[in-house]
Amino acid sequence: MDLSSSMNSRFSAWGKLMLFGEYLVLRGAKSMAFPLNVGQHLEVIPHADGETLWQSFEGDTCWLEIRFSKELEIISTNDEKKANVIQELLKLIQSNNPAVEIIGKNFKVTTDFNRAYGFGTSSTLIALLSQWSGQDSYDLLAHSFGGSGYDVATALSRQAIVYTVENRMEKQFDLSAKVTDHLLFVYLGQKQDSAKEVASFKNKEVSPEDLVRINEIIDAAVSCSAIEEWEDLMNESEVMLANILEVSTVQNRLFSDYPYAVKSLGAWGGDFVMASYRNEAEARKYFQEKGLTDMFNYQELTQ
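User: That's the sequence. What structure does it adopt?
Assistant: Structure tokens below.
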């Protein structure tokens, strides 16, 4: 995937997975995430009839189409809720900088991953519009989807990152192959509504000690070079979040007989889990026998 293009009419932003700091990043803690080798791409070209056309594709399938008038009012769409979000973003961009040409354009967004995976369709969209318009991505995020912003930061990085709401991207680094060679990412098949989960988390009690400890866990994970140590960090983080969210760990709930560590990722409940292993074929067989077929090792997601 080429990040450059002629006339700057094509832009790319990368999907993400957060490894540590889910939920707690919203309370000021650190988080750790890494960018994927798949994402979304935006092409902006002239539209013949002078109106504005928005098209979103997954592969060859157009799943969202919006026709806007010259006043950016919605003429027609196949998804009114999503069209309203796009309309608000375009109007915000136009209001912030009237010189940005929106009217008479065809916005074509292509996604090269399964949208159900939760790899970041919203965050990559914000990053794309920010690149195209020159406007601040965090401002666009705040006026649309909300959230901590870690995913927008990851969308424009090519290395793993440590992120906080206060300082945004604090560090870029490479994870040790002694860890990543033993990680499998398994899709549970029940994508969660991140906004709904975030809203629910607002009522949960988090102690200052929890925030200090997750920061220590992430600091240790950044420099970790042994899978056994990484597993300890996975387990401690998982138990901490389970206690805060008042739910069972995913390992206790679904994979109690798995011999190594399993940690929830993203909005807990149905997105991806991270599982450690010593033998990849055996790990894949275990999850396949549980009826889970969508899984990737670290290299498949990053190279």
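The chain is about 35% helix and 25% strand.
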